[in-house]
Amino acid sequence: MKRQNRRYRLFSAMRLLGLVRKESLQIIRDPSSIGIAFFLPVLLLLIFGYGVSLDARDIGLAVVVDAPDPLAMSLVSGFKRSEYFAPVTIPSIQEAEEAMMRRQVDAIVWLREDFSRDLLARGGAPVGVIINGVDANKARLIEGYIGGVWQQWLARISDARGLDFRIPVRVKFRIWFNPAVRSRDYLVPGLIAVIMTLIGAMLTSMVVAREWERGTMEALMVTPVSIYEILLGKIIPYFILGMGGMALSVVMAIFLFAVPLHGSLPALFAASALFMLTTIAMGLLISTVADSQFVAGQMAIVVTFLPAFILSGFIFDIGSMPVVIRAVTRIVPATYFVAILQSIFLAGDIWSIFFVNCGWLAVMCAVLLFIIRKKSHKRLR
């Protein structure tokens, strides 16, 4: 009896290896799978790393000086030296407003005719500032940049004249976790979660549907393999493929985009493996429900990719969302993985964040696999 049980277990392992080999050969013969796993991450990282930025640079700034003099022109030179502005001098405020209407500039700084006289006589001179507020986030950035140039200019003028430059409240800023304030360091780690969602869910969502469409599932049903072996035979190859795409994304993030990695690689890959299993489970669940590859692909985009892109905190702050939407983000697995990635990359191994979010991912993965097992049967539809 023991010898028979050992022989059965060995045979079961051989059956599983056969299924894994079959699925791996199918992946190799399908260029789209390789493209989604390796070409798509490179493309998305290049687009978001170089093309998408939440920072404001080379801002079009119209500078209007009604009475040019050394004092006013020294302030103008402060804007020219700033890395944030691309200032142009315009003769009149009317022309500057027309330039803003045509979207040629995003802000106007207006130094009126009495600017220098009021500054020297009364110790203060108003500066007119007009900002295009269509993009509220960019408008706030421009306002802060202009205020910074103004404060630096006042300090230089005070030092040159031997005056005591005092501000009622002097603020000292200390920025944690992203001291360079680069949006790339914030976006790229979150993008890895979106990429892994796309790889895991998109590829596996069409696996079972493709088997039914091609008629190979019927042939698989008459073999002695169990439903567990069928599911594992599909999970293992795509898990390896997804982790390969994840490793490529991490290498690009560190060496191409210079995103700092303050945490440990073992923690990063452990969380990534758990998240990959969760996304593969989501894809398999969609695949068991959908009747065709087209339907499965569309469901994967709507159910997994779009929520990971919009509701995970990758770009949009979850705390700024309405209460109902914030509740919805709790059932999006990418929400927890984005928190882990941003913590490991920018802050380090903060275990309270790591274990809590990994715990939720483990619960989601277990629930999804349980539902898949209940809905998967070794019989024809």
SSE blueprint:
Blueprint: H1 2-29, H2 31-51, E1 59-65, H3 70-81, E2 85-89, H4 93-101, E3 107-111, H5 115-122, E4 128-131, H6 136-161, H7 183-205, H8 207-214, H9 216-221, H10 227-256, H11 265-289, H12 293-310, H13 323-329, H14 333-347, H15 351-375
Parallel strand pairs: 1-2, 1-3
Antiparallel strand pairs: 3-4
Helix pairs in contact: 1-10, 2-7, 2-10, 3-6, 7-10, 7-11, 7-12, 7-14, 10-11, 11-12, 11-14, 11-15, 14-15
Structure description:
With 381 residues, the protein is mainly alpha-helical. It has two domains: 12-52 and 182-375, no CATH class; 59-161, abc type-2 transporter like domain (abc type-2 transporter like fold, 3-Layer(aba) Sandwich). It has helices spanning 2-29, 31-51, 70-81, 93-101, 115-122, 136-161, 183-205, 207-214, 216-221, 227-256, 265-289, 293-310, 323-329, 333-347, 351-375; strands at 59-65, 85-89, 107-111, 128-131. Strands 2-1-3-4 form a four-stranded mixed beta sheet, with helices on both faces. β1, α3 (70-81) and β2 form a beta-alpha-beta unit. The two termini are 36 Å apart. Residues 1-11 have low confidence and may be disordered.
